[in-house]
Amino acid sequence: QVQLVESGGGLVQPGGSLRLSCAASISIFSNYAMGWYRQAPGKQRELVATIGSLGITTYADSVRGRFTISRDNAKNTVYLQMNSLKPEDTAVYYCNVASGTWSLPWGQGTQVTVSS
What we know:
By secondary structure, the protein is an all-beta fold. The protein is 0% helix and 46% strand.
């Protein structure tokens, strides 16, 4: 059964850092472009970063220069290093395939709260 398990969220002060992890129980993980998404209260889920099967990365303008996405195909895991966090980064963060047309079953996400 396909499963995505996100972890690493928490409460952090503005300017702080967090590293999120997503373990994916999918076969041939390395073939998939993966993405990190987030959903803030009252807002639609948005894609913030992607990493292709060959390691090419893209970022939303709002996080470029502060967030870094990476992957470890041997561990079927994708990471999101978040630095210089801002209150507007507060959201539930999810990982999934980086596709606009299909998705794997969504995991429970991990809550990130940036507040002083």
